[in-house]
């Protein structure tokens, strides 16, 4: 079952992010801020979450994580399919490290395509790949 997170899910989201990334790339306060924001929604399903910020007809995927115990079981894919049904959204955007082949494979399978590369975008010098998916 996929559900929209509430502010009470902060510890669950933090735990999943910390486990998925080895150490969360964002401080807990970022998730607290997002969960309180009317523009941002986090969707939770079976050990994973996807955060999405919507402005008019565009939606930006702000974070994606699945706990290692639940990876490779279709969890991320299922949450994304739920999000693609969001009303009024015609374009989904996201940013992924050029080094994160697993996440890129997920996004390509879901229909995202690269539209721009930000060179040396991350603090460690890695490039960021900007991807989009248009909805008819
Ligand atoms: C990337 C991540 C969110 C994928 O979540 P997941 O629930 O394991 O992904 P799914 O099981 O839904 O994968 C669906 C498809 O995506 C692709 N995919 C997912 N993870 C992959 C990996 N590690 N390597 C290659 N392909 C992968 C596959 O095509 C897969 O389909 P298949 O199982 O039929 O082969 C998860 O590995 C994760 O949390 N990683 C650490 C955090 C991270 O990198 N977040 C994204 C930052 S942009």
Overall pLDDT: 96
How far do the termini sit from each other?
26 Å
Helix and strand content put the structural class at alpha+beta
Spatial strand sequence of the major β-sheet: 1-2-3-4-5-7-6
Percent range of helical residues: 25-40%
Secondary-structure blueprint of this entry?
Layout: E1 3-4, H1 10-21, H2 28-36, E2 40-45, E3 48-55, E4 58-66, H3 75-83, E5 91-97, H4 101-109, E6 113-118, E7 128-134
Parallel strand pairs: 4-5
Antiparallel strand pairs: 1-2, 2-3, 3-4, 5-7, 6-7
Coenzyme A is lined by residues 20-21, 48, 64-66, 71-77, 96, 100, 102-103, 105-106, 109.
Short summary:
The chain has 136 residues and is an alpha+beta fold. The protein contains four helices and seven strands. Coenzyme A binds next to α1, β4, α3 and α4.
What does this structure look like?
With about 140 residues, the protein is of the alpha+beta class. It has a single domain (about 5-135), classed as Gcn5-related N-acetyltransferase (GNAT) (Aminopeptidase, 3-Layer(aba) Sandwich), CATH 3.40.630. The chain is built from four helices and seven strands. Strand 3 (about 50-55) and strand 4 (about 60-65) form a beta hairpin. The longest helix is centred in the first third of the chain and has 12 residues, at about 10-20. About 25% of the residues are buried. The model has no long low-confidence stretch (mean pLDDT about 95). It binds coenzyme A (COA). Coenzyme A binds next to helix 1, strand 4, helix 3 and helix 4.
């Amino acid at each position: 079952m996929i559900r929209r997170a509430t502010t009470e899910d902060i510890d669950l989201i933090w735990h999943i992010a910390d486990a998925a990334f080895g150490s969360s790339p964002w401080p807990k306060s970022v998730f607290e801020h997002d969960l309180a924001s009317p523009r941002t929604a986090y969707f939770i399903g079976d050990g994973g979450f996807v955060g999405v910020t919507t402005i008019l007809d565009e939606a930006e995927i702000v974070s994606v994580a699945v706990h290692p115990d639940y990876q490779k079981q279709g969890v991320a894919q299922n949450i994304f399919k739920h999000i693609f049904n969001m009303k009024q959204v015609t374009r989904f955007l996201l940013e992924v490290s050029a080094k994160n082949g697993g996440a890129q494979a997920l996004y390509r399978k879901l229909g995202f395509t690269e539209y721009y590369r930000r060179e040396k975008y991350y603090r460690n010098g890695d490039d960021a790949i900007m991807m989009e998916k248009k909805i008819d």
